[in-house]
């Protein structure tokens, strides 16, 4: 059988779900013609799909060496990223952008990598690049919202969240962050109203932990990782506070009520742990303290 015909047969096997036969066919093609880059490319795709990123890197590297195009370059970059070779991935992503400057997936993955590497400046640059290319890009808007929030850049975060929710309404996690930012800015009434609305209308609100993983896709990694970090900290802080509360029952004279900022933090902790009633209590508590002390 001619190699193009054998390749077409391998593709049919792969599409029909007979992946093992397809792999054998692709490898048979490469034995006959070691320079048949499409066979390497498809073996790379199969390996990546199976989670075998070392093999995927090998096959995509061979494919790229034989045919330097945007597809092979980007596939190699993604497999290197999944394998944990971040710096190498960055190099191939930047090379991908020399083929197509507005390739959104490359910009987005670069932002994700730079966040992992702790490079805030470049994370923000590549997220904003995506917005410049596609102003309503869901993952980039969410990513910037959480990027700004974690760095206490609340006005910028709120702006991105509001923009996101107008375009993509109903996201529980971002509405929680929106409520918290409003409270931090002293807008307790708007924050409380938002909380009340969420409790009444969002049936999944109290299942916050369960909805976190299902609400975001792979390209939303920046948002998801930010929320997971906040949630982990929330659980730890809440446990510390509850321990302190338990100890206060034994020694009530040693217990002091939380400061306004601590009360706000506790409000967020309870929100992230699916307890909106407790969250509301601490939000109201923080508001009353600020009113009594004359804080703005």
What's the overall geometry? elongated
Low-confidence spans: none
Mean pLDDT: 83
Order of helices and strands: HHHHHHHHHHHHHHHH
Largest sheet: none
Structural class: mainly alpha
Distance between the termini: 80 Å
Percentage of β-strand residues:
under 5%
- Secondary structure: helix percent: over 70%
With helices defined by DSSP (H or I, 4 residues minimum), what is the helix count? Answer: 16
Gyration radius, in Å: 25 Å
- The number of strands is 0
Write a structural description.
The mean pLDDT is 83. Helices cover 78% and strands 0% of the residues. It is elongated, with a radius of gyration of 25 Å. The chain is mostly helical and 296 residues long.
What labels would you give this structure?
single chain; 296 residues; mainly alpha; 16 helices
Question: Mind sketching the topology for me?
Answer:
Layout: H1 3-15, H2 19-32, H3 37-49, H4 53-66, H5 70-83, H6 86-99, H7 104-116, H8 120-133, H9 138-150, H10 154-167, H11 172-184, H12 188-201, H13 208-215, H14 221-250, H15 260-272, H16 276-293
Helix pairs in contact: 1-2, 2-3, 3-4, 4-5, 5-6, 6-7, 7-8, 8-9, 9-10, 9-14, 10-11, 11-12, 11-15, 12-16, 14-15, 15-16
């Amino acid at each position: 059988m001619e190699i193009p015909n054998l390749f077409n047969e391998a593709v049919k096997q792969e599409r029909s779900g007979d992946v093992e036969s397809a792999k054998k066919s692709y490898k048979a093609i490469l034995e006959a013609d070691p320079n048949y880059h499409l066979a390497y490319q498809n073996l790379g795709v199969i390996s990546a799909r199976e989670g075998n990123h070392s093999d995927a890197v090998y096959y995509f590297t061979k494919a790229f060496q034989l045919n330097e195009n945007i597809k092979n370059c980007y596939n190699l970059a993604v497999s290197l990223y999944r394998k944990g070779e971040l710096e190498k991935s960055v190099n191939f992503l930047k090379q991908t952008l020399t083929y197509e400057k507005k390739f959104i997936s490359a910009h987005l993955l670069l932002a994700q990598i730079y966040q992992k590497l702790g490079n805030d400046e470049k994370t923000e640059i590549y997220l904003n690049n995506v917005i410049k290319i596609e102003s309503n890009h869901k993952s980039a808007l969410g990513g910037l919202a959480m990027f700004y929030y974690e760095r206490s850049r609340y006005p910028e975060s709120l702006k991105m969240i509001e923009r996101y929710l107008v375009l993509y309404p109903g996201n529980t996690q971002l509405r929680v962050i929106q409520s918290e930012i409003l409270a931090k800015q002293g807008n307790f009434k708007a924050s409380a109203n938002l909380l009340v609305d969420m409790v009444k209308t969002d049936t999944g609100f109290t299942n916050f932990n369960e909805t976190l993983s299902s609400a975001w896709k792979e390209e939303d990694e920046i948002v998801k990782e930010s929320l997971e970090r906040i949630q982990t900290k929330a659980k730890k802080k809440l446990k510390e506070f509850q321990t302190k509360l338990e100890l206060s029952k034994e020694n009530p004279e040693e217990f002091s009520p939380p400061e306004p900022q601590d009360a706000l933090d506790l409000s967020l902790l309870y929100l992230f742990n699916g307890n909106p009633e407790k969250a509301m209590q601490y939000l109201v508590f923080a508001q009353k303290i600020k009113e009594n002390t004359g804080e703005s």
